[in-house]
Amino acid sequence: MTLPDRSTLSRREYARSLVAVGGATALSACLDASSDENGEENNVPSGTDDLDSLPARQYAWNEFAPRDDNGNVQPPAHHVLLPLALTERATANGEPTADAREVTESALRTLERAYEWSTDGLLFTLGYTPAYFERFDEDLPEVVDLPEPEALTSREDPSFDEFDALLHLASNHPEVVLEVEEGLFGDQEEPERNGVVLESDLTEVFERVDENRRTGFVGDGLPVEHTDVAGVPDAVPEDAPFFMGFRSGFDRTQASEDHVTIDSGPFADGTTQHVSSMDIQLEVWFEQENHYQRVSKMFSPEHAAEDLVGDVGEELGADSGLSDERIEATAADARQEGVVGHAQKAARGREDGDPPLLRRDFNTIDGDRPGLHFVSLQHEIEDFVRVREAMTGADLDVASANNGILHYIFVNRRGNYLLPPRELRALPAANPDA
Amino acid sequence: MQDFTPTTDETEIDRRTFVAQTGAATGVLALAGCFSGDDEEDEDDPDAENGDENGAGEDYGDGRPTIEVEDPPNAVYLPTHREAMRMLDPVEAGDIMLGPMLSYPHDFWTIAGTGEDAVERESPNSGRGVHMMFTLWDQQTGTVLPVDDGVQIRVYDGDEQVGSPVSPWSMISQEMGFHFGDNVTLPEDGTYTVEVTIPPVSVRKTGDLVGRLDERVSATFEFEYDDEFRHEVIGGVQYLDEAEWGDRGALEPMDHGDHGEHGGHDGHDDHDHEDEHDDGHDHGDHDGHEQDHGDEHDHNGHDDHAHVPYSALPQVEEYDGTILATADDESGADGVPTDHDSLPRSDDAAILAALFEDGSADAERLSDDGDGDVTAGQYLLVSPRTPYNRVPLADAALSVTVERGDDTIAGPDAVLAETLDSEYGIHYGLVVNDAQIEAGDSVTVTIDSPPQVARHQGYDTAFLEMPPVEFTVPEQ
Ligand code: HEM
Ligand SMILES: [Cu+2]
């Protein structure tokens, strides 16, 4: 594995590029890079032995993340998605063994002892695919809506996540996601953090599906650090948190964690997760369209005409500036304006005014091309499908190129997951009550 | 990736059948190396007016023909030059044929909306690469598909994907008509493979297209990017006299020598490639195509089968219905347009409106999109097209109001549904089955938003702010 060239990159860039590479060598390089800034070992707050103090929901992240001046959650900056397949020896008759369950739980507890549950420490979720639950004779409880993933638009031909589980690691410190991965799956000496040795037998239970390992980053100024990657033009705005140049994930356009929670049955305090991975065509977006056109397509034609957004969305505050009228006018805008905005269109999927999705998407340069890993939490996968239909806007009388940002995104993979409550996060049965 | 499927003699439709079925695609380009052979000759040809003084052909790596036209009119105008391109053998994608055309990366204009700010000029920042274009047509009917439901291209250098995927723009150009295309930067010389995926065609379809083209299909083609290519497409550029730049008018469709109907540029610097095709046929005439090609085009013995239809819509007289008269023409029935040039204009788009009577074969066909829940009636067809070349103006939004005195017969502002018919091509139509449009009725067509298609030079200042057009139904 070749490491990125240290000399040509800033410290942050370098550390991030190491996350994409992964592995022990990347980790030690990353640790060096993060400690040599001012000569000090950099501090990551430690975890707790009192595991009952941790939230019941694995995806309870918002309370443990800072907010910006407008009250919007600032998501953790660095992400790894680790696809996991159960090993032969972790199963009996296809179903996971009690031992495997114990090993898994103990590995996750080790992480919670080593790192504070926060963006400054480590946040993580472990989710399970429909393919995993197929292993059991019983069905999932009815309140859990977890269909097999499928293509959701006529233009895509995605591959599907058909392995068992997905571990989503997130932290503001690139070295944290790296050393956790290394601790769980590396074959070198276990790293140590805050006095906790990150040792685990998780490799007894899970194999990492390397070709589907995914990484990424999100936050003001991070995308522009990747203009060295082919397909990432210099025109990516300095302050933009996302590749396409605008802020996203406003407080009032996101579902709350409560809203996406399954509220009854054994998986109460769990949720469903959809993960789609896509390429983004940034050169055409930035070099062939002007800011006015980009704002029209990302938000709405009115946002462009009235200059509501600012360069990267700094004029917007805690919502995207979509009034009910603007959302209802989507179909009319398609005909009268010849263009509709992505946000405007997707907002048609709101229910009684509430956004049904909690989006935790992040940028990527996996495969050395710009893209997005779209992680979305919702009560039911059906909610995602419905909102995605609203976003696709096949009903709208508008040219494909002017139909929000469809012209620019190319979906490659889709996966559906159940994120069980923390209590059942280690290899749950399909119906734990049965 | 799919197999590379070149068109062979076996898969090529018989020329006569093809023309008979062509309908909307009235012009068929026989593109047998029109430029690839000719440019070389141009260079030594003392008669070639586009010789050295234009500088093209010096530095193929970066040299791009100049494109500045000062103060172009708000109308269709003559660009500075005629593009040169390399035509590749058409390939099959299910029922669809795809005809690739490659040129050098050049300027064009994207449009996303209605005002001035919604138009942006794309100027490629690197001369390294190609302007990649292709025309799609239905093999069975020959209908050019001037609609985009999300076509995607991926470029490969061997197994390595080059850059990000691209959704090509739907575009119009005077020479190529409607096509899909974009500037694609290439890192270096080599052989590239292009994979094109075409989603189901979701626009309303009638005639022989009902229930068809509903599958996502794909095709691949290969091309060489090298000095020879650059020589061909940059060296092959033909400049018009500078005095003509920006004049109202349009370049003739590639390979069409019927400049008689093209207004502004009669008798200008026609080059040898054109002379070769100036064989006395009336290329504008839809029925005259049988003789158009096949025999006189094998210049260099390659690309003989690269027949790509040009997206011209039918001539006025080919519509078998009542052509509506322009309203402000006092003479009533005499105001009925009889040919392309006498159609009313809206921001220089020629607008044809035709009414098909209940019970006519056309009305039945056009009313039936396979949905089954629409009862036939009269059919009102509105067909905006470019002046001169009759290129369809797709992806606009049109509506109509039909009035008789103070009564509203249809509308106000009834939506005209964008429809692709196997005979009349792309148009905007309304089935009128709960009223009867009669002679003397006034028919106001409103352009809610202009055609949202990217434009090559010469089409960039027209079809943008389009005022409504008023018609009246003439006496039979
Ligand atoms: C490159 C890909 C994408 C980018 C750059 C992007 C960007 C944005 C932006 C800037 C907004 C407006 C700000 C906000 O409300 O947060 C937004 C809203 C939204 N987007 Fe996306 N998005 C992308 C893909 C997707 C996908 C794949 C979905 C899937 C359904 C989606 C669903 C939504 C939803 C639900 C909203 C909020 C609508 C509401 O206000 O109710 N986005 N997105
Ligand atoms: Cu083009």
From TrEMBL, chain B:
Feature: compositional bias, Acidic residues: 37-60
UniProt protein name: DUF7350 domain-containing protein
Domain DUF7350: from-to ranges: 337-472
Organism from which the protein derives: Natrialba chahannaoensis JCM 10990
Residue segments, region Disordered: 32-73, 248-307
Matches recorded under Pfam families: DUF7350
Transmembrane segments: none
Biased composition (Basic and acidic residues): 248-271, 278-307
